[in-house]
């Protein structure tokens, strides 16, 4: 099956700093989503981005499908950005999502 | 929007009892429902996939007789953990997929199961 690798596994930032989270995948995808899992376990959809670039406030994401990677940018980080960020991909029309191992982000005040 | 509810949010039960978890898509219809579980500090692992009105398809290593899934309508799916044991303690998350031209998935808030 498809492999999903996220890096770095852990990230510690000072409030206000910027960061880039990376997701590499091993095959062509028709779905790529970024999620933020908050400390209570809720998965929050950040982006549905199988290709191209999107922005939502301080967050933006870019997926280069031909090179099989996606990047999530967080600017001016806040303590509420802390949590685990997951990238998940699927191939085929009705295929299941395969999750990466996640990136644990800690933003310190 | 894409609002998903899951009930209960947490449950503690004795070994040997059965626990039912409900998942509802409140403002959209879900033709497909995915059930995941997550152990502490790990990623989400898919347990099973179900389509409305059909039997669920279970991932390798997931016992279908232990984890009963019902997807009776486009807005409701249930997961029943039968004869629960301490090793079943985990965080269970449902994920309905909206019937649309996109295959974006949304996630419920999860149910934390503790089996004593």
Tell me what you see in this structure.
The complex is a heterodimer of chains A (109) and B (116). In chain A, the strands form 2 sheets. In chain A, strands 2, 4, 5, 9, 10 and 11 form a 6-stranded mixed β-sheet that branches. In chain A, strands 1-3-8-7-6 form a 5-stranded antiparallel β-sheet, with no helix packed on it. Chain A is mostly beta strands and 109 residues long. The N and C termini of chain A lie far apart (40 Å). The model of chain A has no long low-confidence stretch (mean pLDDT 95). Chain A is globular and about 40 Å long. Chain A contains no helices and 11 strands. Chain B is an all-beta fold and 116 residues long. Chain B has strands at residues 4-7, 10-13, 19-25, 30-38, 44-51, 57-58, 67-73, 76-81, 90-98, 111-115. In chain B, the strands form 2 sheets. Chain B has a 6-stranded mixed β-sheet, with no helix packed on it. A 4-stranded antiparallel β-sheet of chain B has the order 1-3-8-7, with no helix packed on it. Chain B is globular, with a radius of gyration of 13 Å. The model of chain B has no long low-confidence stretch (mean pLDDT 92). The interface between A and B is medium-sized, with 22 and 21 residues.
